[in-house]
Design the sequence.
Protein backbone atom coordinates (compact mmCIF):
# COMPACT_ATOMS: atom_id res chain seq x y z
CA UNK A 1 0.00 0.00 0.00
CA UNK A 2 1.24 3.46 -0.86
CA UNK A 3 1.72 5.64 2.23
CA UNK A 4 0.74 9.28 1.86
CA UNK A 5 -0.91 12.05 3.88
CA UNK A 6 -4.24 10.23 3.84
CA UNK A 7 -2.66 7.09 5.26
CA UNK A 8 -0.96 9.00 8.05
CA UNK A 9 -4.25 10.70 8.89
CA UNK A 10 -6.17 7.45 9.31
CA UNK A 11 -3.29 5.89 11.25
CA UNK A 12 -3.53 8.76 13.72
CA UNK A 13 -7.30 8.47 13.99
CA UNK A 14 -7.09 4.73 14.56
CA UNK A 15 -4.44 5.17 17.26
CA UNK A 16 -6.59 7.66 19.16
CA UNK A 17 -9.68 5.48 18.85
CA UNK A 18 -7.86 2.36 19.99
CA UNK A 19 -6.50 4.23 23.00
CA UNK A 20 -9.99 5.18 24.11
CA UNK A 21 -11.64 1.79 23.78
CA UNK A 22 -13.99 1.01 26.62
CA UNK A 23 -16.33 -1.85 27.32
CA UNK A 24 -19.59 -1.18 25.51
CA UNK A 25 -21.59 -4.33 26.12
CA UNK A 26 -21.59 -5.44 22.49
CA UNK A 27 -21.19 -9.04 21.35
CA UNK A 28 -17.69 -10.43 21.15
CA UNK A 29 -16.66 -13.44 19.05
CA UNK A 30 -17.96 -16.33 21.09
CA UNK A 31 -16.95 -19.68 19.70
CA UNK A 32 -15.56 -21.43 16.67
CA UNK A 33 -18.94 -21.79 14.99
CA UNK A 34 -20.12 -18.18 15.36
CA UNK A 35 -19.12 -14.91 13.74
CA UNK A 36 -19.67 -11.28 14.71
CA UNK A 37 -19.33 -8.84 11.83
CA UNK A 38 -19.84 -5.08 11.68
CA UNK A 39 -21.36 -3.36 8.68
CA UNK A 40 -21.95 0.24 7.66
CA UNK A 41 -25.34 -0.54 6.13
CA UNK A 42 -28.64 -0.36 8.00
CA UNK A 43 -30.23 -3.62 9.06
CA UNK A 44 -33.66 -4.79 7.96
CA UNK A 45 -35.34 -4.21 4.64
CA UNK A 46 -35.07 -7.96 3.97
CA UNK A 47 -37.83 -8.08 1.37
CA UNK A 48 -37.04 -9.37 -2.16
CA UNK A 49 -40.22 -7.74 -3.45
CA UNK A 50 -38.59 -4.39 -2.68
CA UNK A 51 -35.38 -5.52 -4.41
CA UNK A 52 -33.44 -6.97 -1.49
CA UNK A 53 -30.81 -9.48 -2.61
CA UNK A 54 -31.24 -8.87 -6.34
CA UNK A 55 -27.59 -9.82 -6.90
CA UNK A 56 -28.02 -13.08 -5.03
CA UNK A 57 -26.42 -12.10 -1.73
CA UNK A 58 -29.36 -12.84 0.60
CA UNK A 59 -28.61 -15.58 3.13
CA UNK A 60 -32.22 -16.08 4.22
CA UNK A 61 -33.45 -16.65 0.69
CA UNK A 62 -32.58 -18.73 -2.34
CA UNK A 63 -33.10 -17.58 -5.88
CA UNK A 64 -33.80 -19.91 -8.75
CA UNK A 65 -30.12 -19.48 -9.58
CA UNK A 66 -27.03 -18.53 -7.58
CA UNK A 67 -23.57 -17.27 -8.43
CA UNK A 68 -20.47 -19.40 -8.83
CA UNK A 69 -17.23 -17.78 -7.66
CA UNK A 70 -13.88 -17.31 -9.34
CA UNK A 71 -12.12 -14.62 -11.31
CA UNK A 72 -13.86 -12.68 -14.06
CA UNK A 73 -17.61 -12.83 -14.56
CA UNK A 74 -19.16 -15.46 -12.28
CA UNK A 75 -21.11 -18.41 -13.58
CA UNK A 76 -24.75 -19.12 -12.82
CA UNK A 77 -25.62 -22.32 -10.97
CA UNK A 78 -28.97 -23.93 -10.11
CA UNK A 79 -30.34 -23.18 -6.64
CA UNK A 80 -34.12 -23.58 -6.34
CA UNK A 81 -33.96 -24.59 -9.99
CA UNK A 82 -32.65 -28.07 -10.73
CA UNK A 83 -30.96 -26.91 -13.93
CA UNK A 84 -30.22 -23.70 -15.78
CA UNK A 85 -33.29 -22.27 -17.54
CA UNK A 86 -33.90 -23.15 -21.17
CA UNK A 87 -35.04 -20.57 -23.70
CA UNK A 88 -37.04 -21.05 -26.86
CA UNK A 89 -35.39 -19.98 -30.16
CA UNK A 90 -36.66 -16.40 -29.75
CA UNK A 91 -35.35 -16.09 -26.16
CA UNK A 92 -38.77 -14.84 -25.09
CA UNK A 93 -39.96 -17.98 -23.30
CA UNK A 94 -37.79 -19.37 -20.51
CA UNK A 95 -38.63 -22.61 -18.70
CA UNK A 96 -37.23 -23.37 -15.25
CA UNK A 97 -37.39 -26.85 -13.64
CA UNK A 98 -37.79 -26.56 -9.87
CA UNK A 99 -36.46 -28.42 -6.87
CA UNK A 100 -38.97 -30.53 -4.95
CA UNK A 101 -39.06 -31.31 -1.25
CA UNK A 102 -37.93 -27.80 -0.24
CA UNK A 103 -39.60 -25.97 2.63
CA UNK A 104 -39.64 -22.35 3.74
CA UNK A 105 -38.61 -21.43 7.27
CA UNK A 106 -42.30 -21.13 8.19
CA UNK A 107 -42.75 -24.81 7.32
CA UNK A 108 -44.68 -24.31 4.07
CA UNK A 109 -43.67 -26.22 0.95
CA UNK A 110 -41.97 -24.54 -2.00
CA UNK A 111 -43.35 -24.99 -5.51
CA UNK A 112 -43.98 -23.11 -8.73
CA UNK A 113 -46.83 -21.09 -7.20
CA UNK A 114 -44.29 -19.33 -4.98
CA UNK A 115 -42.14 -18.41 -7.97
CA UNK A 116 -45.17 -16.99 -9.75
CA UNK A 117 -46.31 -15.06 -6.67
CA UNK A 118 -42.86 -13.57 -6.02
CA UNK A 119 -42.35 -12.19 -9.52
CA UNK A 120 -45.95 -11.03 -9.86
CA UNK A 121 -45.59 -9.12 -6.59
CA UNK A 122 -42.39 -7.42 -7.81
CA UNK A 123 -44.20 -6.36 -10.99
CA UNK A 124 -47.44 -5.33 -9.26
CA UNK A 125 -47.73 -1.50 -9.16
CA UNK A 126 -49.37 -1.87 -5.75
CA UNK A 127 -46.03 -3.04 -4.36
CA UNK A 128 -44.42 0.29 -5.34
CA UNK A 129 -41.15 -1.60 -5.71
CA UNK A 130 -38.11 0.31 -6.91
CA UNK A 131 -36.97 -3.01 -8.39
CA UNK A 132 -39.99 -3.22 -10.69
CA UNK A 133 -38.33 -1.49 -13.65
CA UNK A 134 -35.45 -3.99 -13.50
CA UNK A 135 -37.92 -6.77 -14.27
CA UNK A 136 -40.00 -4.92 -16.87
CA UNK A 137 -38.98 -7.38 -19.60
CA UNK A 138 -41.23 -10.01 -17.95
CA UNK A 139 -44.71 -10.13 -19.47
CA UNK A 140 -46.07 -13.00 -17.40
CA UNK A 141 -45.02 -15.86 -15.11
CA UNK A 142 -46.90 -19.13 -15.02
CA UNK A 143 -46.81 -22.42 -13.16
CA UNK A 144 -46.73 -25.14 -15.82
CA UNK A 145 -46.99 -27.64 -12.98
CA UNK A 146 -45.81 -27.61 -9.34
CA UNK A 147 -42.24 -28.36 -10.43
CA UNK A 148 -41.98 -26.07 -13.47
CA UNK A 149 -42.19 -22.30 -13.91
CA UNK A 150 -42.36 -20.51 -17.23
CA UNK A 151 -41.45 -16.88 -17.91
CA UNK A 152 -42.74 -15.12 -21.03
CA UNK A 153 -40.84 -11.95 -21.90
CA UNK A 154 -41.88 -8.84 -23.79
CA UNK A 155 -38.77 -9.08 -25.96
CA UNK A 156 -35.72 -11.32 -26.34
CA UNK A 157 -33.43 -10.84 -23.37
CA UNK A 158 -30.19 -12.80 -23.32
CA UNK A 159 -29.31 -11.54 -19.84
CA UNK A 160 -32.41 -13.11 -18.28
CA UNK A 161 -30.48 -15.46 -15.93
CA UNK A 162 -29.41 -12.35 -14.00
CA UNK A 163 -33.07 -11.88 -13.06
CA UNK A 164 -33.26 -15.30 -11.44
CA UNK A 165 -30.90 -14.52 -8.55
CA UNK A 166 -33.47 -12.71 -6.41
CA UNK A 167 -34.96 -14.64 -3.50
CA UNK A 168 -38.28 -16.48 -3.64
CA UNK A 169 -40.88 -15.89 -0.93
CA UNK A 170 -43.95 -18.00 -0.06
CA UNK A 171 -47.06 -17.10 -2.00
CA UNK A 172 -48.98 -16.60 1.24
CA UNK A 173 -46.61 -13.77 2.25
CA UNK A 174 -47.60 -11.71 -0.79
CA UNK A 175 -51.22 -12.79 -1.13
CA UNK A 176 -52.48 -9.35 -0.17
CA UNK A 177 -51.23 -6.59 -2.49
CA UNK A 178 -49.63 -3.61 -0.83
CA UNK A 179 -46.47 -1.50 -0.61
CA UNK A 180 -43.36 -3.66 -0.34
CA UNK A 181 -41.87 -1.16 2.11
CA UNK A 182 -44.65 -1.99 4.59
CA UNK A 183 -44.43 -5.78 4.31
CA UNK A 184 -43.54 -7.86 7.36
CA UNK A 185 -40.93 -9.58 5.17
CA UNK A 186 -38.69 -6.57 5.78
CA UNK A 187 -38.20 -7.57 9.41
CA UNK A 188 -39.49 -11.16 9.45
CA UNK A 189 -38.09 -12.77 6.30
CA UNK A 190 -39.45 -16.15 5.21
CA UNK A 191 -37.20 -17.92 2.78
CA UNK A 192 -35.68 -21.26 1.87
CA UNK A 193 -32.11 -20.06 2.43
CA UNK A 194 -29.27 -21.50 4.53
CA UNK A 195 -29.90 -19.04 7.38
CA UNK A 196 -32.93 -17.70 9.22
CA UNK A 197 -33.26 -14.41 11.07
CA UNK A 198 -33.79 -14.96 14.81
CA UNK A 199 -33.39 -11.45 16.26
CA UNK A 200 -33.44 -7.91 14.87
CA UNK A 201 -32.98 -4.47 16.37
CA UNK A 202 -31.78 -1.24 14.75
CA UNK A 203 -28.15 -2.04 15.56
CA UNK A 204 -28.06 -5.85 15.68
CA UNK A 205 -29.30 -8.79 13.59
CA UNK A 206 -28.78 -12.44 14.46
CA UNK A 207 -28.93 -15.22 11.90
CA UNK A 208 -28.82 -18.92 12.72
CA UNK A 209 -28.24 -21.88 10.43
CA UNK A 210 -31.39 -23.31 8.89
CA UNK A 211 -31.18 -26.89 10.14
CA UNK A 212 -33.88 -27.90 7.65
CA UNK A 213 -32.03 -26.47 4.68
CA UNK A 214 -32.45 -28.50 1.48
CA UNK A 215 -28.69 -28.33 0.81
CA UNK A 216 -25.73 -28.88 3.13
CA UNK A 217 -26.51 -27.26 6.49
CA UNK A 218 -24.00 -24.46 7.20
CA UNK A 219 -21.17 -25.27 9.59
CA UNK A 220 -21.04 -21.63 10.70
CA UNK A 221 -24.04 -21.88 12.99
CA UNK A 222 -24.56 -18.26 14.04
CA UNK A 223 -23.91 -14.92 12.40
CA UNK A 224 -24.35 -11.63 14.24
CA UNK A 225 -24.35 -8.42 12.22
CA UNK A 226 -23.84 -5.08 13.94
CA UNK A 227 -24.84 -1.79 12.37
CA UNK A 228 -21.89 0.57 12.82
CA UNK A 229 -22.16 3.35 10.22
CA UNK A 230 -18.95 5.19 11.07
CA UNK A 231 -15.84 3.79 9.37
CA UNK A 232 -13.48 4.81 12.16
CA UNK A 233 -15.68 3.26 14.83
CA UNK A 234 -15.72 -0.05 12.96
CA UNK A 235 -11.93 0.10 12.77
CA UNK A 236 -11.74 0.83 16.51
CA UNK A 237 -13.95 -2.12 17.36
CA UNK A 238 -12.00 -4.40 15.05
CA UNK A 239 -8.74 -3.32 16.71
CA UNK A 240 -10.27 -3.91 20.14
CA UNK A 241 -11.06 -7.52 19.29
CA UNK A 242 -14.83 -7.11 19.38
CA UNK A 243 -15.34 -8.32 15.81
CA UNK A 244 -14.46 -11.21 13.58
CA UNK A 245 -14.51 -8.93 10.56
CA UNK A 246 -15.70 -5.77 8.89
CA UNK A 247 -15.57 -3.78 5.68
CA UNK A 248 -13.39 -0.65 5.71
CA UNK A 249 -12.20 1.96 3.21
CA UNK A 250 -8.86 0.93 1.70
CA UNK A 251 -6.52 3.28 3.57
CA UNK A 252 -8.17 2.45 6.88
CA UNK A 253 -8.11 -1.27 6.09
CA UNK A 254 -4.42 -0.94 5.24
CA UNK A 255 -3.63 0.11 8.81
CA UNK A 256 -4.35 -3.50 9.84
CA UNK A 257 -1.80 -4.97 7.44
CA UNK A 258 0.80 -7.00 9.35
CA UNK A 259 -1.24 -7.25 12.54
CA UNK A 260 -0.94 -10.65 14.15
CA UNK A 261 -4.07 -12.72 13.76
CA UNK A 262 -5.71 -10.45 11.15
CA UNK A 263 -5.87 -10.47 7.37
CA UNK A 264 -6.58 -7.58 5.01
CA UNK A 265 -8.19 -8.75 1.78
CA UNK A 266 -9.65 -7.16 -1.32
CA UNK A 267 -12.12 -8.32 -3.93
CA UNK A 268 -12.46 -6.96 -7.46
CA UNK A 269 -15.79 -5.28 -8.11
CA UNK A 270 -17.75 -3.57 -10.83
CA UNK A 271 -18.67 -0.94 -8.24
CA UNK A 272 -17.92 2.50 -9.67
CA UNK A 273 -17.65 5.90 -8.08
CA UNK A 274 -18.39 8.98 -10.09
CA UNK A 275 -20.03 12.38 -10.14
CA UNK A 276 -23.48 13.06 -11.56
CA UNK A 277 -23.75 16.25 -13.63
CA UNK A 278 -27.44 17.24 -13.76
CA UNK A 279 -28.49 18.38 -17.22
CA UNK A 280 -30.89 20.89 -15.68
CA UNK A 281 -28.13 22.75 -13.89
CA UNK A 282 -26.89 25.69 -16.04
CA UNK A 283 -23.25 24.83 -15.32
CA UNK A 284 -23.18 21.02 -15.29
CA UNK A 285 -25.67 20.91 -18.16
CA UNK A 286 -23.10 22.54 -20.48
CA UNK A 287 -21.45 19.83 -22.66
CA UNK A 288 -18.15 21.74 -22.51
CA UNK A 289 -18.11 21.59 -18.71
CA UNK A 290 -18.89 17.87 -18.77
CA UNK A 291 -16.13 17.04 -21.22
CA UNK A 292 -13.56 19.33 -19.59
CA UNK A 293 -14.11 17.82 -16.15
CA UNK A 294 -13.63 14.32 -17.55
CA UNK A 295 -10.27 15.42 -18.95
CA UNK A 296 -9.20 17.39 -15.87
CA UNK A 297 -9.50 14.67 -13.26
CA UNK A 298 -6.38 12.71 -12.28
CA UNK A 299 -7.81 9.22 -11.83
CA UNK A 300 -4.41 7.63 -11.22
CA UNK A 301 -3.70 9.98 -8.32
CA UNK A 302 -7.08 9.10 -6.82
CA UNK A 303 -6.31 5.40 -7.04
CA UNK A 304 -2.85 5.85 -5.52
CA UNK A 305 -3.64 8.37 -2.79
CA UNK A 306 -7.30 7.83 -1.91
CA UNK A 307 -7.69 4.12 -2.64
CA UNK A 308 -4.19 3.08 -1.64
CA UNK A 309 -3.88 1.25 -4.96
CA UNK A 310 -7.11 -0.71 -4.47
CA UNK A 311 -8.94 0.26 -7.66
CA UNK A 312 -8.94 0.89 -11.39
CA UNK A 313 -9.72 3.93 -13.51
CA UNK A 314 -13.30 4.30 -14.74
CA UNK A 315 -14.28 6.33 -17.81
CA UNK A 316 -17.63 4.62 -18.49
CA UNK A 317 -19.64 2.19 -16.33
CA UNK A 318 -18.18 -0.79 -18.27
CA UNK A 319 -15.21 -2.47 -16.52
CA UNK A 320 -12.69 -4.69 -18.30
CA UNK A 321 -14.31 -7.83 -16.91
CA UNK A 322 -16.88 -7.64 -19.72
CA UNK A 323 -14.31 -8.81 -22.22
CA UNK A 324 -15.47 -8.24 -25.80
CA UNK A 325 -18.20 -5.86 -24.53
CA UNK A 326 -15.55 -3.58 -23.00
CA UNK A 327 -14.09 -0.89 -25.25
CA UNK A 328 -10.47 -0.22 -24.20
CA UNK A 329 -10.34 2.83 -26.45
CA UNK A 330 -13.25 4.56 -24.69
CA UNK A 331 -11.14 6.65 -22.31
CA UNK A 332 -10.56 10.28 -21.40
CA UNK A 333 -6.93 11.29 -21.47
CA UNK A 334 -5.69 13.19 -18.43
CA UNK A 335 -5.15 16.53 -20.20
CA UNK A 336 -5.85 19.74 -18.29
CA UNK A 337 -4.50 21.81 -21.16
CA UNK A 338 -7.14 20.41 -23.50
CA UNK A 339 -9.78 20.83 -20.80
CA UNK A 340 -8.91 24.52 -20.54
CA UNK A 341 -9.03 24.95 -24.32
CA UNK A 342 -12.50 23.38 -24.47
CA UNK A 343 -13.76 25.74 -21.78
CA UNK A 344 -12.15 28.75 -23.49
CA UNK A 345 -13.79 27.85 -26.80
CA UNK A 346 -17.18 27.49 -25.10
CA UNK A 347 -16.92 31.01 -23.63
CA UNK A 348 -15.95 30.09 -20.06
CA UNK A 349 -13.26 32.69 -19.25
CA UNK A 350 -11.16 32.82 -16.08
CA UNK A 351 -12.08 35.55 -13.60
CA UNK A 352 -9.78 37.42 -11.26
CA UNK A 353 -9.85 34.57 -8.72
CA UNK A 354 -9.21 31.92 -11.38
CA UNK A 355 -12.79 30.65 -11.49
CA UNK A 356 -14.33 30.83 -14.93
CA UNK A 357 -17.45 32.75 -15.89
CA UNK A 358 -19.75 32.80 -18.89
CA UNK A 359 -22.48 35.35 -19.55
CA UNK A 360 -22.20 36.53 -15.96
CA UNK A 361 -22.54 33.02 -14.53
CA UNK A 362 -19.80 31.57 -12.37
CA UNK A 363 -18.53 28.07 -13.21
CA UNK A 364 -19.54 26.71 -9.82
CA UNK A 365 -21.76 23.89 -8.67
CA UNK A 366 -22.34 21.64 -5.65
CA UNK A 367 -21.53 17.98 -5.14
CA UNK A 368 -23.30 16.17 -2.33
CA UNK A 369 -22.01 13.00 -0.70
CA UNK A 370 -23.25 10.75 2.06
CA UNK A 371 -21.95 12.11 5.35
CA UNK A 372 -21.17 8.69 6.87
CA UNK A 373 -18.99 7.54 3.95
CA UNK A 374 -15.39 8.69 4.39
CA UNK A 375 -14.31 7.20 1.06
CA UNK A 376 -16.88 9.25 -0.85
CA UNK A 377 -15.75 12.29 1.10
CA UNK A 378 -12.11 11.78 0.12
CA UNK A 379 -12.93 11.10 -3.54
CA UNK A 380 -15.17 14.18 -3.64
CA UNK A 381 -12.41 16.34 -2.18
CA UNK A 382 -9.92 15.05 -4.76
CA UNK A 383 -12.39 15.74 -7.56
CA UNK A 384 -13.06 19.28 -6.33
CA UNK A 385 -9.32 19.95 -6.21
CA UNK A 386 -8.85 18.74 -9.78
CA UNK A 387 -11.82 20.77 -11.04
CA UNK A 388 -10.46 23.97 -9.51
CA UNK A 389 -7.22 23.52 -11.46
CA UNK A 390 -9.16 24.16 -14.69
CA UNK A 391 -11.22 27.01 -13.23
CA UNK A 392 -14.33 25.17 -12.05
CA UNK A 393 -15.42 25.62 -8.44
CA UNK A 394 -16.97 22.59 -6.75
CA UNK A 395 -18.64 23.10 -3.39
CA UNK A 396 -19.03 20.00 -1.23
CA UNK A 397 -21.89 19.14 1.10
CA UNK A 398 -22.00 16.13 3.43
CA UNK A 399 -25.62 15.10 3.85
CA UNK A 400 -27.83 12.14 4.71
CA UNK A 401 -29.47 10.35 1.78
CA UNK A 402 -32.92 11.71 2.66
CA UNK A 403 -31.55 15.24 2.25
CA UNK A 404 -29.70 14.39 -0.96
CA UNK A 405 -32.69 12.89 -2.80
CA UNK A 406 -34.78 16.08 -3.22
CA UNK A 407 -31.81 17.83 -4.86
CA UNK A 408 -30.86 15.21 -7.48
CA UNK A 409 -32.25 17.32 -10.32
CA UNK A 410 -30.08 20.37 -9.65
CA UNK A 411 -26.94 19.32 -7.73
CA UNK A 412 -24.25 16.73 -8.39
CA UNK A 413 -23.77 13.64 -6.25
CA UNK A 414 -20.70 11.53 -5.52
CA UNK A 415 -22.44 8.35 -6.64
CA UNK A 416 -21.77 4.63 -6.61
CA UNK A 417 -23.20 2.14 -9.08
CA UNK A 418 -23.03 -1.41 -10.33
CA UNK A 419 -25.85 -3.00 -8.30
CA UNK A 420 -26.23 -5.99 -10.64
CA UNK A 421 -22.96 -6.31 -12.56
CA UNK A 422 -23.29 -9.83 -13.94
CA UNK A 423 -24.12 -8.70 -17.46
CA UNK A 424 -23.35 -5.42 -19.29
CA UNK A 425 -27.10 -4.78 -19.56
CA UNK A 426 -27.76 -4.82 -15.83
CA UNK A 427 -24.56 -2.83 -15.24
CA UNK A 428 -25.23 0.11 -17.54
CA UNK A 429 -28.85 0.32 -18.69
CA UNK A 430 -30.25 2.12 -15.63
CA UNK A 431 -27.28 4.46 -15.50
CA UNK A 432 -27.43 5.70 -19.10
CA UNK A 433 -30.88 5.07 -20.59
CA UNK A 434 -33.27 8.03 -20.82
CA UNK A 435 -36.34 5.97 -19.82
CA UNK A 436 -35.21 6.52 -16.21
CA UNK A 437 -35.80 10.24 -16.54
CA UNK A 438 -39.47 9.47 -15.92
CA UNK A 439 -40.14 9.79 -12.16
CA UNK A 440 -42.27 6.65 -12.06
CA UNK A 441 -39.46 4.48 -13.44
CA UNK A 442 -36.81 3.01 -11.14
CA UNK A 443 -34.97 4.85 -8.38
CA UNK A 444 -34.24 8.57 -8.13
CA UNK A 445 -30.56 7.64 -8.49
CA UNK A 446 -31.00 5.89 -11.85
CA UNK A 447 -29.61 8.15 -14.59
CA UNK A 448 -28.99 10.70 -11.86
CA UNK A 449 -27.54 13.18 -14.37
CA UNK A 450 -30.92 13.24 -16.14
CA UNK A 451 -29.03 13.11 -19.43
CA UNK A 452 -30.81 11.90 -22.56
CA UNK A 453 -28.97 10.78 -25.69
CA UNK A 454 -31.00 8.92 -28.38
CA UNK A 455 -27.86 7.17 -29.63
CA UNK A 456 -27.23 5.69 -26.17
CA UNK A 457 -30.85 4.53 -25.95
CA UNK A 458 -30.81 2.89 -29.39
CA UNK A 459 -27.58 1.00 -28.77
CA UNK A 460 -28.54 -0.11 -25.25
CA UNK A 461 -31.91 -1.34 -26.55
CA UNK A 462 -30.24 -3.14 -29.45
CA UNK A 463 -27.85 -4.93 -27.11
CA UNK A 464 -30.63 -5.71 -24.63
CA UNK A 465 -32.80 -7.36 -27.27
CA UNK A 466 -30.14 -9.21 -29.25
CA UNK A 467 -29.45 -12.91 -28.73
CA UNK A 468 -26.21 -12.80 -30.75
CA UNK A 469 -23.24 -12.42 -28.35
CA UNK A 470 -21.08 -10.75 -31.01
CA UNK A 471 -23.82 -8.26 -31.89
CA UNK A 472 -24.42 -7.47 -28.22
CA UNK A 473 -20.71 -6.90 -27.57
CA UNK A 474 -20.38 -4.64 -30.61
CA UNK A 475 -23.36 -2.53 -29.51
CA UNK A 476 -21.89 -2.09 -26.04
CA UNK A 477 -18.54 -1.02 -27.49
CA UNK A 478 -20.39 1.54 -29.60
CA UNK A 479 -22.24 2.83 -26.53
CA UNK A 480 -18.92 3.52 -24.87
CA UNK A 481 -17.54 5.31 -27.93
CA UNK A 482 -20.67 7.46 -28.10
CA UNK A 483 -20.46 8.20 -24.38
CA UNK A 484 -16.92 9.59 -24.65
CA UNK A 485 -18.29 12.13 -27.12
CA UNK A 486 -21.20 13.14 -24.88
CA UNK A 487 -20.53 12.29 -21.24
CA UNK A 488 -23.26 12.73 -18.65
CA UNK A 489 -21.15 11.88 -15.61
CA UNK A 490 -17.54 11.91 -14.57
CA UNK A 491 -16.86 8.26 -13.85
CA UNK A 492 -13.76 8.09 -11.68
CA UNK A 493 -12.81 4.66 -10.35
CA UNK A 494 -13.86 1.05 -9.96
CA UNK A 495 -13.25 -0.02 -6.39
CA UNK A 496 -11.53 -3.08 -5.05
CA UNK A 497 -13.57 -3.67 -1.92
CA UNK A 498 -11.40 -4.04 1.17
CA UNK A 499 -12.04 -6.08 4.29
CA UNK A 500 -10.36 -6.96 7.57
CA UNK A 501 -10.96 -10.36 9.18
CA UNK A 502 -9.65 -12.30 12.11
CA UNK A 503 -7.68 -15.32 11.01
CA UNK A 504 -9.57 -18.59 11.38
CA UNK A 505 -9.33 -22.22 10.45
CA UNK A 506 -12.22 -22.07 8.00
CA UNK A 507 -11.81 -23.22 4.40
CA UNK A 508 -13.48 -20.62 2.18
CA UNK A 509 -14.56 -20.67 -1.43
CA UNK A 510 -12.54 -17.75 -2.76
CA UNK A 511 -13.73 -14.40 -4.18
CA UNK A 512 -16.48 -13.42 -6.56
CA UNK A 513 -16.92 -10.27 -8.68
CA UNK A 514 -18.70 -7.92 -6.31
CA UNK A 515 -21.53 -5.48 -6.97
CA UNK A 516 -22.03 -2.05 -5.47
CA UNK A 517 -23.41 -3.59 -2.27
CA UNK A 518 -20.09 -4.20 -0.56
CA UNK A 519 -20.87 -4.78 3.08
CA UNK A 520 -20.13 -7.96 4.98
CA UNK A 521 -22.67 -9.96 3.00
CA UNK A 522 -19.84 -9.92 0.45
CA UNK A 523 -16.08 -10.05 0.93
CA UNK A 524 -14.74 -13.25 2.51
CA UNK A 525 -18.28 -13.94 3.83
CA UNK A 526 -20.23 -13.98 0.55
CA UNK A 527 -20.28 -17.80 0.57
CA UNK A 528 -20.34 -18.24 4.35
CA UNK A 529 -22.84 -21.06 4.07
CA UNK A 530 -20.27 -23.21 2.22
CA UNK A 531 -17.39 -22.80 4.69
CA UNK A 532 -15.89 -25.97 6.09
CA UNK A 533 -13.29 -26.89 8.68
Sequence:
Amino acid sequence: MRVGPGTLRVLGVLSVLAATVSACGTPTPADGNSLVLADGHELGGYNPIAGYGAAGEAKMYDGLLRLGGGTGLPTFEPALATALPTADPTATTWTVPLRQGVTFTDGSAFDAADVVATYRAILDPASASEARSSFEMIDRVEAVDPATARFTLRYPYAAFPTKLLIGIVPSEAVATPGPAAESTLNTEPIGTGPYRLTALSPDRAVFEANENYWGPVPQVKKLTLLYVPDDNTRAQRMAAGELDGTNLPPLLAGTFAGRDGMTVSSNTSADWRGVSLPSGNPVTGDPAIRRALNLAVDRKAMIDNVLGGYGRAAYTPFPEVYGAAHNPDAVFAFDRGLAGSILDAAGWRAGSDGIREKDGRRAAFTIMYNSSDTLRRDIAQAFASDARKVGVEVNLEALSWDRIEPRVERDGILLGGGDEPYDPDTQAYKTLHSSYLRPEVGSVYDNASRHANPAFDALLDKARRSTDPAERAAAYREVQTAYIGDPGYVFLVFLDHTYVAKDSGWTMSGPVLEPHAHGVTWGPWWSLQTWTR
In short: Confidence is low (pLDDT under 50) at residues 1-26.
